[in-house]
Design goal:
The protein is mainly alpha-helical. The chain is built from 7 helices and 2 strands, in the order H-H-E-H-E-H-H-H-H.
Length: 189
């Protein structure tokens, strides 16, 4: 876990990291300390299902819940204690707060201070759907009916991505490498 957390410290990689501290021996305090220099906030997310929580089989068979509510609370890093005992107490208080949120959700049917949901534009939905269909058809056509070089390219990219994912290879971004190369050449002259 420690080694994996170190890969998330690169400030050029914007990311969201989800941790479930109740199920790990790598404590919240150790995790926050490991990432403290590269974090500005922690987000506490609570999910409430309106009628019933989906079971494992619902998820396995793709049965969507009827209505899902999400409560997000931003916690500044300065508001999180640094000592082991204080972090443990803070974490317990956070889970008590989440339990109260869920109890209130089940009795009232919503989280406090609900945001408003905007209506989706039919035109935008149709435009997005046609865009996805067009790109899917284009890629499918190119894959089956184009030259062998496109097929080699697609196969090479898939093989590279699978290898990079499996071996945790993190190449440097091209834009950053080009900027560094230009800066080095300017510094030489």
């Amino acid at each position: 876990m420690h080694r994996m957390l170190l890969t998330f410290k690169d400030p050029r990689d914007p990311l969201w990291l989800a941790l479930f501290p109740e199920g790990t021996d790598f404590t919240e305090q150790k995790c926050v300390e490991e990432l403290r220099a590269s974090l500005d906030s922690v987000y506490d997310v609570t999910i409430g299902y309106k009628y019933r929580c989906p079971s494992f089989m619902d998820n396995a068979f793709g049965v969507d819940p009827a209505e899902v509510h999400v409560h997000v609370r931003r916690i500044r890093l300065n508001d999180i204690p640094t000592s082991e005992n204080e972090v443990t107490s803070w974490l317990m208080d956070t889970f008590c707060f989440k339990d109260q949120l869920l109890s209130d959700f089940h009795s009232k049917g919503h989280f406090p201070n609900p945001g408003t949901e905007k209506e989706l534009s039919t035109a935008k939905c149709l435009l997005n759907a046609f865009g996805v269909i067009f790109l899917t058809c284009t890629c499918t056509y190119l894959t089956f009916f184009s030259s062998i070089w496109f097929k080699v390219y697609v196969s090479s990219v898939c093989a590279y991505l699978a290898t990079a994912t499996y071996f945790n290879i993190r190449p440097r971004p091209i834009a950053g490498s080009v900027k560094a190369f230009i800066a080095r050449n300017i510094a030489k002259h």
